[in-house]
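seq:
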Amino acid sequence: MQPSKLNCVQRVWLEFVWTGMRLFAVMPYWFKYYVVEDLLFFLLCYVLRYRSGVVRSNLRNAFPEKSPAELRSIRRRFYRTLSEIFVDTLDLAHRNERKARKMLVIEGFDEHRRQVLGRDWIAMLAHFGCWEYCSCWGLCEPSQKVVAVYHPLHDPVMECLYQRLRNSSYATTVAMKECVRFYLRHRDTGLDGRNMALGLIADQAPPRLRAGVPWFSFLNQDTVFFDGGEKLALKFGLPVYFVRMERLKRGRYRMAFELIYDGVEKVAENEITERYVRRLETMIRERPELWMWSHKRWKHKR
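struct:
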């Protein structure tokens, strides 16, 4: 949504919030991550108890083998992650290449750049750690532009805010339902003469079930997954990479790309999605506190 489509009150509110975010983003690291984050953690975990019922239920069902004490520990660490992601997102209101290289270390950068240079490709990521940092690939590799495929928000002011955060000279957004048409329109010429890195957050539950949607055993539960990344890859012969995120310290991550489909391999139906699911499950089991347990991930039943 464009700001011009907002009413007067909404536009004023948008500019007020955006200015506040910009001011927050230039504050010292210690203040953002050791004062504001700690305060948010206390409020979310102990005062507001944000979606505590959903978090408890999800953790209990995903890890039936863990003791109540272990689940409580994961839950507390999750609220720490949630608080940090809030700070991370605000911090993105002011960024440049120097700041991006501090926030994010790209493991095997030269090798991955060699593999994707001069071609379009798909990055399948998840709500794990600060997923918004993934758009920094376009800042580190200027010959490519990140296309973040997303679901538009219902709140018009929040939609405009996220558009400002995500759209820049090195990244842009496209709604999920427009993804195929968008790619067809730009695949021959690219975006601003640059190749596209299509980023899809693939661990969400579809808003409604349809015939043929793939189900997998995931974290001890029958789970339905989007298969849009697989369909796009097979339709256009695009390589697919799983995005692995590792938290180094507050507001700092390491990102790596693992090839799960080369664009030409003959694969069985749902095989690409299966490879993504298995890698995602392994990553979550290694660092469970970094995944978004507050999402109602299992609202659909087989």
